[in-house]
Amino acid sequence: MRTSIASISIAARAVLNMHSLNNEGGEGNQIQTRMVDIIGHDGELHNVNAISGDMLKHVLMEHFYQQARARHVSLCESCQRFNTNRINADKDFFKRADDKKWSDADFIDQMLQTCAIDDVAGILITEGKRSVPRKSISEFGWVLGLPGKVSTDSYFHVKYATERGADKRAEDAEGQKSGANLGQSIFHRPASSGVYALVCHLELARIGYNDIKQDYAISDEERQLRASLLLESLMHTFIELNGAMRSTQLPHLVALEGMITTSTGVTPAPLISPLMGGEDHPYAYREQAADIVTALNGNGEEIVKLQTFDTISDFATQMRTLLDVSRQRKAVYVDCCTLLIGSTFLTEASGGNLVWRQDSSCSHTIRYQDGTAGCSYPYIWSCGRRKSFFFLA
Length: 393
Description:
This protein is α+β, with helices and mostly antiparallel strands. It folds into three domains: about 5-140 and about 195-325, no CATH class; about 150-190, no CATH class; about 330-390, no CATH class. About 25% of the residues lie in helices and about 30% in strands. It has helices spanning about 55-70, 90-100, 105-115, 115-120, 165-175, 220-240, 285-295, 310-325, and strands spanning about 5-20, 25, 30-35, 35-40, 45-50, 125, 130-135, 140, 145-160, 185-200, 210, 215, 250-265, 305-310, 330-335, 355, 365-370, 380, 385-390. The strands form six sheets. Strands 1, 4, 5, 8, 9, 10, 13 and 14 form an eight-stranded antiparallel sheet that branches. Strands 15-19-16 form a three-stranded antiparallel sheet, with no helix packed on it. A hairpin with a 4-residue loop joins strand 11 (about 210) and strand 12 (about 215). Helix 1 crosses helix 6 and helix 6 (about 220-240) packs antiparallel against helix 8. The two termini are about 15 Å apart.
């Protein structure tokens, strides 16, 4: 793998009080919140408050957009303005595509090189009578209220008018005809509180990957930068749940507990819904995930790992640790018996800034000049093969 973490999954339960992050619309002066029907842990149908996965993915992309601009990451002309049409609205890009008569594979290559947002968020290219899909790196499910642990109510609000004299009321009534809404008005807003189940998954190994050519279209350094910014943005998304009506109904995020699974290979990072277990067995989904991780790893290398968190600060700490240790490894080829000067070398098992990995077809081992691992002296390869050093970018 070209990245240390190939995929990451997060499952969590969040306690949110008095939020109105996702609404379906309005009827008269009544705003309607989003409600969905789900099957609970008891096998019964429940109607619960929910937040669309579209909302969370949009929040993730808002954070990624800000990070990308700050780090001067490549964005298409449309994404530089955070246009939701993304590269479909970049006329200059499509003019180049038409002039050079790009194939679908070449088109994907150029798109991945041009825009980080189209890379990680995905896009269906429809401009110019094309139909070229780019599958998203990031995936979110609905944020669902736990049956029996969530409540929604509607609250009375008034927009007061400072002057209520007859002349003013007549003036305001005239303004109503143009839709100005100048007079005093009453309205109802919903607010929900409860325990919510969140799920998301990131396929970090697919960053910059052209699914048609089955190869990477961007450099390792660029892939690493995009992966780091995406993980950072994911952490911000969970800590700051953006959405509707935050100006006067900023949600109270009281608690966040859950699990993070990661995979460093083709084995998927398992994801279990936090709805499992209901309110009677709140850690059932963690226990199931732990058993699955054990089964996936078997007796071999620990490809899949599981970490749990019980507080908001725990989650932030775990994500920061992943950001720090998930730096991409880049290969540098060196002839055997070449003396290497001026660095500290550590075996891969020991960790550190520089690691070595021996070719699977070679039975020889490495020997250090002073005979110890992790020494600050140069060492010499013991055979004539070319080997690769992997260092953290």
